[in-house]
Amino acid sequence: MENKTIGLDKGWDYMQKGITKLKRILEGLPEPPFTSEEYMMLYTTIYNMCTQKPPHDYSQQLYDKYREAFEEYITSTVLPSLREKHDEFMLRELVKRWANHKVMVRWLSRFFHYLDRYFIARRSLPTLNEVGLTCFRDLVYQEVHAKVKDAVITLIDKEREGEQIDRALLKNVLDIFVEIGMGQMDRYEDDFEADMLQDTGAYYSRKASSWIEEDSCPDYMLKSEECLKKERDRVSHYLHSSSETKLSEKVQNELLVAYANRLLEKEHSGCRPLLRNDKVEDLSRMYRLYCKIPRGLDPVANIFKQHITAEGTALVQQAEDATSNQVNFIIILLV
Predict the structure, then answer these.
(1) Are the CB atoms for 111 and 46 separated by under 8 Å?
(2) pLDDT at 304 over 90
(3) Which residue, of 120, 154, 223, 233, is most buried by count of CB atoms within 10 Å of its CB?
């Protein structure tokens, strides 16, 4: 095979057998793994077809067929398997298909390695790895990412309501948004994070509007502190680390900034009663929550200033009253 010129159709027929075997392995069908001899024969076939003298140098045709192999597999197998599933089942299928796709890219890139080293390098074309990932992005990701985003946000809200969810699944799904950006964060930010943050704002806006009516200031602050902790926990388990600051700001804005005046001015439990009754723990929590917000401590400081002024004025008045009483007492004695 190595000494004779290999025609494009004959060579590709041989490569197709290797690709079919790889697909069967990925689909979990009974198929023995590649032997080193099979791997070498597939690699050598590509090498020979790319190094034959013109017009039998089939580098460009093989580069095109490499892409077509992915497109055919995605169209015939991957997309139908995703279209028939919904919600969490669709997420699980997507994670499996993405993992399989990366395995397929890795193996086919090995078979076609000669293209990467010489043909692609000389022509400044996208690498085999880029071509493989781009196929998934253009054919699979573009079709499903909106449904995937909605399913993930639904699960996050369920967790906020106390339900147990599969955090590892969410981590794997959100890794796809990151990886599909191929070094950029725009897919994660535009296709997932923006709507997730909007939903977060709406969720906590609803919570805040009921809590501010029902709860005392200390209870409201306890709930707010716990919510912020749980959102940071979500970042550590499945959201990308770049979401932490944006997520915290969104929660702070809905729970603390939007209701700052009503919360701090609550008649029987707001900042003034806490100061009057020396509620150090509650005041410490108030400081912790508001010191992280730009100018968040301003209204607290104003109330504190008013409290100090009022206390000082009261003490001065007491002293004046005491002095006045003493003078009156002396006058009465003298008279």
Answers:
(1) yes
(2) no
(3) 120
Task: Give the residue ranges of DSSP H helices in 189-243.
Answer: 194-214, 217-237
Q: How confident is the model at residue 85 (pLDDT cuts 50, 70, 90)?
A: very high
| Residue 321 within a domain | no
Please indicate whether residue 267 or residue 72 has the higher confidence score (pLDDT).
72
In this structure, the dihedral spanned by the alpha carbons of residues 18, 22, 27 and 32, taken in order and rounded to 10 degrees, is: 90
SS3 content of the chain, % helix, strand, coil (to 5): 80, 0, 20
- Identify the CATH number of the domain in which residue 229 sits: 1.20.1310.10
Are residues 13 and 150 part of one domain? yes
**SS3 for 87-135, per residue?**
HHHHHHHHHHHHHHHHHHHHHHHHHCHHHHHHHHHHHCCCCHHHHHHHH
CA angle 152, 158, 161 (to 5 degrees): 150
Percent of the chain with pLDDT over 70: 88
Condensed to tens digits (0 to 9), the pLDDT of residues 103-129 reads 999 999 999 999 999 899 899 999 999
- Quick count: other Cβ atoms within 10 Å of Cβ 160? 17
End-to-end CA distance of the chain: 135
Asked if 270 and 283 touch (Cβ cutoff 8 Å), the reply is no
Give whole-number Cα distances, 289 to 22, 200, 262, in Å: 55, 18, 16
Residue 174 located in a structural domain? yes
Q: Is residue 271 scored above 80 in pLDDT?
A: no
